[in-house]
Every structure is written in structure tokens, then in C-alpha cells.
Amino acid sequence: MHKEEQFRTYRGYALLEQEIGALTPSMEDYLEMIYRLTEKNGYTRIQELAAALNVQPSSATKMVQRLAEGNYLIYEKYGVIKLTPLGDQMGKRLLARHNTLVEFLKMIGATSHLLEDTERIEHNVSQETLTCISRLVHFFREHPTWLKAYQEYCTRFSQRSKL
Amino acid sequence: MHKEEQFRTYRGYALLEQEIGALTPSMEDYLEMIYRLTEKNGYTRIQELAAALNVQPSSATKMVQRLAEGNYLIYEKYGVIKLTPLGDQMGKRLLARHNTLVEFLKMIGATSHLLEDTERIEHNVSQETLTCISRLVHFFREHPTWLKAYQEYCTRFSQRSKL
DNA sequence: CATTGAATTTAGGAGCGTCTAACTTTTTTA
DNA sequence: TAAAAAAGTTAGACGCTCCTAAATTCAATG
Question: Which of A31, A97, A103, A120 to mutate to test the interface with B (most CBs of B within 10 A)?
Fold first, then answer.
């Protein structure tokens, strides 16, 4: 009746993804950051990466080695990190996804945990959902009046809850 | 300059949460499901829970023991699972969060991975963001014309991309 | 009430992603 | 160019959550 057989735990979905060879959330984080850091000079280094992500260099080394195995980047011991075409493409997509979510959250007024919410949500959104969100952003951009109406609606709401 | 020091990996945020004693995503999944299953009879059992979440009974046992330690539920070996007031309150909140996200995703047309996206996003949304999303849902409910406008906007979009 | 079968628990192992500590390599500096 | 400092690697440990296999307890049946 309730078709509840389909439910999985959070971990369960993560394991499913693994099976189909997808990037883990952490791999996505590293790749996205490498893409950012790479924009300036065409490469980045372990330390810069580790600092940007708030992890220890040893963690960065390990992950970079994994990403190199997956052909997302070129890396030799003690050397420089460069993206392959595959990694570059992936990084671009990850960054675009990130930015779409930032725009969306800003738009709806969810700004105080903006970075954290984005970082956490981005790994958990299907392509389809991302497309819908992107359209919503564009829609409101093209109809600023309605966006304003929403924002006023929010203001009224929060004043009411102060009573 | 770029204030990138604040970035963390997905794992990094998870570890931060642990430190402040929050529930892990998996704990939330179990609690939410126990809440659902409990609605009917006031209790549930290991097996029912495991089946509903697509995990092995041994995994469910372990987690239930952890949740019992955290005072979210009452459980004795080989017995029945019942929520404490704390667990009940938490479960209610988790389910409400789940439902809010479902409504939102439906509204924007992200329906083909509805369950999975919801399950994955729900653990990663701050209270503030959830509030904003909830308001957006209510806003569109009160202004069905604008919702329809958005949906038509989407239709136009997808037709364009078919060309 | 003894047996059988279902439900549950325990024990132990695996992968992920983090850490610390110790070691190695590279770079800088004097 | 030799010593010191910085950068990077390796090894080993930990917690989370899952699994399988084996042991245990409970419930049902004859």
C-alpha cells in the first residue's frame, strides 16, 4: 500500500552512487575547489588546496591521488596539480551548479548560512532539480515585480511572527 | 582577498555538526522513519524499520541502540521501539521538513527523482533556508496565477531545448 | 513442552574521509 | 653549497554506516 520499500537512508543513496562510479561529495568538493584555484595560474598545489578546504595537507594528498587515478587531473609526487580536459569540464559543471544554488538561496532570502547550505546541498541535487531551480531563478529575474511581491510576503511573515 | 578560508568539504561540515551533538543524516533517516511507522500503532519493530529503509536488521539494531542512548526512544533487547517525547517531537519536525521539501520540488516540477532528492537534500538544509522555501511554497499557493506563469515559462524552455 | 522457524543481536570486516605523527623531498637562505 | 625551513607523503588510527555470518532469544505449532 504505502510503497515504502523504496526508501533508503542517506547512506544508502550514497552507496548506490558509488556503485555507478559517480564522484563522492568530497571528491566533488576537491574538484570544484581545484577548478577555482586553477583558474588563475593553470595549476594549484596541495597546500593551497588544503588551506582552501580547511583540511590537512595529508588529506588533500590522498584525495588528489584518487582523482588522478580517475583521470580528473595530472599529478606527480611533490608536483603541481593540473586538470585534465575531463576534470576541467567536470569542475566547470560543479562550479556552475554551486553558483546556481547560491543565486537561488540569495533570491529566496536564505543568506545567513549561504555558503554552508550551498556546499551541503549541491552534492545532493539531481540534474533535473537543478534545472528547475535554475529556471525559477531566471523566471524571477525576468519578473522582478513578482520577486518583490514574494519578498514583501516574507517581510509580512516575519513581522507577524514577532508578535 | 577571496576569503576562501571559510570553505569546508562536505565531510568537514558533517564533522562540525557531530561536535555540536547534532543528529547524523542517518540518525535523522531512522528517526523520521520510526516516526512514520509509529503513527499507526504507537510502536514499531526492528524488522519493519529495516525493511522500510532498505537496510539489514543488524544495521537497524545498532542505530536503534544509539538513538536509545540519545534518549530519542525506548528500546529493550528483542522488544518494541517507542519514541520518547523528545524523539516524537524530533520526528515530527523531521517529517515536516521532508514534506516541505516534497511540496517545493513538486511545485517547481522536479518530480522524477522526487523521493531521492528529498531524502538527500533534507539533511542538508538549515532551518532558515527551510523557512524560506516554505514561504515560497505558500506564496505560490496564494498566487496560483504566478505559479502558472512559471510553469509555462518552463514549458517554453524545454520546447526550445528540443529544437 | 519440545521443536522449529522467525526475529534479533553480536562479532567482525570494509570503504570513506578525516586526523596526527613521523619521514622524505624540495626550496630557500645564509 | 650546506643547513634550515617549508612542502608533501606515508603509515596508522578513528568514527560512521553498512554488510555477512553465526549465535541467541522469542513465538508458534503440534
Answer: A120
